[in-house]
Request: fold
Amino acid sequence: MAQNWIDVTIQADIDAGELLGALSDPFVQGAWQDGPTMHLYWPSDRWSADHVAALRAVLQQFGEAAAEVLVQSMPDQDWNRQWAQSVRPIRIGRRIVIRPSWEQAVLQPHDIEIVLDPKQAFGTGHHATTRMLLEWLEELVHGGESVLDVGSGSGILAMVALRLGAASALEVECDPVAVDCARDYAQENGFGHELQLVCGTLSDVAGSSRPHLVLANLDRQTLLLLCDELAEYATHGARLLLSGILLDQEQEILEAFSNAGAMFSQRREQEGWVALELLMGESCEGASR
Reply:
């Protein structure tokens, strides 16, 4: 029997992964994002007005209480068609290509490719917070590095780092649904023992490795909560890349991490979002903003 669907369209400048993580709804069956437009999909028999109230509460947490939310019903065949037509291959930086399984992409020499069908675990590379870190990885990974991805979601950052030449990557994610999706992605893209996934928190992997690169694409509250733990990696010589930071949150994040011993090195900015590179103090002498 065909399954009808609820398509919820949201206009808000939020990363879909952060929204889904805060929503923590096991019945969301698919999602995709194009700039400020997000689509979330529920089976119609799992949908109720309570979901709208929950969405509104989460949007308010992100400062998007006035975001436009449109709820539509659609039959199964329309949902599948809209999904396939809306998610296209994207190129990030010079070499990184991310595509869904149903679309082929024309690759240039030295391109790397990740196949990623949008699910409940995000990022897909479409949002600026993910895109900035991917572009940075293209510059920073030269071969042989170890990478720690905190709050890894889909695992896109770790997978791209490995494709670029990193020797190993460890993903840490507290959402078991996201971890299941990330395991599927890793298998579909042919990764093996070089990519490890841990369902847990940063403290669960403390001391297990000395990564060269630590990636944290998280929201402001989580970055501040994990500040001391993340900064400790920088004080041991790791390069710390933070994202998920709005412009008006940048100074607060910088001050917190500076007090913890991780000093500003450089920054990127796209579409009102900021990514920061932090290093241990003596590595940043002369660095200026």
In short: The chain has two domains: 5-86, 90-284.
